[in-house]
Write a structure and sequence with these properties.
alpha/beta, TIM Barrel, single chain, eight-stranded parallel barrel, 40% helix, 9 helices
Length: 275
């Protein structure tokens, strides 16, 4: 099926995205992933070290990073890095939990710098299921205590931190936080599937709400019940309306194709109208 034209609702195709704006997620098998990404002529978002058990999360990171450097030499597009996200509750009231998050995040920034990455993604960790009246305030205030030091570290490395929406049912918590920190080195990564799964607000409205604070996007599709990481066009998301909203922003974005397999990423590339 040709997904490059109008979508199922008849909307016009979004403007073409430049190939130098597109990255593909590189997972656990970094050697195979990066070789295929190099052949595709796009950038790479290194997600090899994002989960527990990966080097750098209880194991030394230096050797693993050194091994990746030559593999990235053939990648022609931008380089990004996905930081750890499991249980890194940076706003925790437990000082030890917060210290572990800070340690993991700082190590991720240093690793990304060694790889020549321009950005690092961390999850927002916001949880709207916590139905306590003061939770939004606690999240915001504790986050404001946590992020400025890491943002300063990122600035020293010429790296941008993108905070990714996960369970939020509204674009407001992330927007409020990033506006309060007010640094060009702290911006938002919008994940279209997370928006659709956890919110009734259409993903295109998240893009418009975030406006200039949005810098990067995770693209994949879903059937609506799970975070499927399907190729674009194989789920039920209105991809074209979302991309049109992105194209209407006054600044260019970068996009990571975050699919479960490399063949899925190749299918997503075929869906996009790259120029």
């Amino acid at each position: 099926m040709d997904h490059s034209g109008p979508d199922a609702e008849g909307a016009a195709a979004a403007p073409a995205i430049s190939r130098d704006q597109v990255l593909v997620a590189a997972g656990q098998d970094a050697a195979e992933s990066l070789a295929r990404i190099a052949d595709l002529g796009v950038g790479a978002e290194v997600q090899t070290f994002a989960r527990p058990g990966a080097p750098g999360q209880g194991e030394p990171l230096d050797g693993a990073i050194s091994a990746l450097i030559p593999l990235l030499a053939g990648v022609r597009g931008p380089i990004g890095y996905h930081g750890p996200f499991i249980d890194t509750v940076h706003y925790s009231q437990d000082a030890d939990v917060q210290a572990i998050a800070r340690q993991r995040y700082a190590a991720a920034l240093d690793a990304a710098a060694r790889l020549g990455a321009g950005f690092v993604i961390f999850h927002s960790q916001y949880n709207p299921l916590i139905r306590v009246r003061h939770y939004p305030r606690l999240y915001h205030e504790r986050s404001l205590e946590f992020w400025p030091r890491l943002v300063a570290h990122a600035e020293s490395l010429s790296i941008t931190i993108y905070l990714e929406n996960m369970f939020e049912d509204s674009p407001e918590p992330l927007l409020r936080l990033v506006e309060a920190v007010d640094s060009p080195r702290l911006r938002i990564c919008g994940d279209i599937a997370h928006m659709a799964l956890f919110s009734s607000t259409p993903p295109r409205e998240w893009v418009r709400a975030w406006g200039p604070r949005l810098g990067h996007v995770h693209l994949n599709d879903t059937l609506g019940a799970y975070d499927d990481h399907l190729p674009l066009g194989e789920g039920n998301l209105d991809i074209q309306a979302f991309l049109q909203a992105c194209a209407e922003l006054p600044h260019p974005l970068t996009y990571t194709l975050e699919n479960s397999t490399l063949s899925g990423a190749e299918a997503s590339l075929a869906y996009l109208r790259l120029r």
